[in-house]
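Comment thread on ticket #2218

A.B. wrote:
> Attaching the input chain for the structure job we discussed in standup.
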Amino acid sequence: MKTVQMRRLTFTRLLVGTASLAIIITTMSMAAAYISPVFLALFFAILLSPILYWLQKKGLPTGLALLVMIIGVIGLGIGLIWFLSASFEQLANSLATYQSQFQARVADAQAALASQGIDPSGLNRGAADIEAMAQSLIDYLGRLGNFAATALFLVMTIIFALIEAPNLRTTLQQSLGEDHLLVVRSEEFSQNVIRYFGLRTFVNLITGGFIAVMLWVLGIDFALLWGVLTFFLSYVPYLGIFLATLPSVLLAWAQYGVGMAIVVIVGVTMINVVAENVIAPKLIGQGLKVSPLLVFLSFMLWSWILGPLGMFLSMPLTVILMFLLDSFESTRWVANLMAGSSESSQ
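C.D. wrote:
> Ran it. Output below, let me know if you need it in another format.
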């Protein structure tokens, strides 16, 4: 009898949990326009919090350290907005020139195929699809470059999150006690998240910086823009580097031909392989593993829930969830399942 009751209770909990999860996901999807910027701002606050702690360790009072951080966030935000807006505007103005260059390259390729007795109609259809995809990508990036109101909201949310960060642990300790399991686990969780994303940011900076320098040396237009894009999209494993590389490859093809496009692909691949397989394991370690299937599923899920910003936030949110699940024995098996391993990620 007790076994039947336990099974019913387990089934009821599972049913309630599934229904609650469905309601949460639906609500988040409906409010994505408001939730996405908040998540993005909190993510940036996590990235910036080590700088705040470093300033405090150097002897700066908390108030002065916060003031320095606020000035830095505002300055960085204004600079990034100006750079993106100016770059996207120049790119949009040059789009007609790149399209004509791209069409000329396609015509040359068609002539070369025809001279070898190969039907070039497939190339023509493929080129049309690539042009349409590139136009859609540029239009989307252009909209990202014109978001002054959203950017102001992001900056203000980041500032308030940084102001509240030093008081959060103290408030939790006063409410629950220093030895409470939630306090101990939350401290471990926050340290793991901050460490992971801090080192991840450094690896992304190396990747984006080297790619920008390589593109500049090769003479590819907007090299710095593609480097910045690579920096941000590299938070999405596997898929991010592809999305970041696509515009520069198309631009290299339009400017110099298919040979330069291949050079860009090879160069980006080599830089990414070194960054992800040599530098990242040494800095971040082998502890956190994310299965490729989980990367793809989280990319699709968060993109559907949060819209375009969900593409960028997919892995940060998934990694935070994995760290949270790994912080407790009862849910550690879920984190191991998500990682595709039988060992703890810690």
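A.B. wrote:
> Thanks. Noting for the ticket: The chain has 13 helices and no strands.
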